[in-house]
Amino acid sequence: MRQIVVFTRYPEPGKTKTRLIPGVGALAAAKLQRRMTEHALDHAKEASRMSGYRLSVAVSGGTPAGFRNWLGRDVVFCEQVGSDLGEKMRAACVRAFEKGAKACVVVGIDCPTITPDVYADAFSALETHDVAIGPALDGGYYLVGVTKRAGDRGLDALFSGIDWGTE
Asked: What is the pTM of this model?
């Protein structure tokens, strides 16, 4: 089984896309969060339908009812667990492996060009490698994929000691 985990926050004005607030305002930043989440989830759902990937959404903020009302009752939600992004991604992968996944791909909502083909490429890479990373133009990345083999050896080196969210 292959698992996609989409990370997002509830689009509450003043609490999401905070770096954009000085330029566009809290309401516009929250609206952008909402639209980007919906776009990312549409592509992840399409990939799941096409290829049978299991899909979950790792959430922060809001309430379970708020997420269900917004994104639907057919979506599997899980709370982001950890003190920084690395711990949260590590926990999401471990949770996927505990539920039977052999490979897990984690994405955020900030890269609108992630399509079903990108997921297929990542899972294809994970057939011969334990880690797949989609590099972003800003020096970061838009996707991290790991296999259960990597998880069994420990994911701490992959997800710790990184200064998350830097310029």
From this structure: 0.93
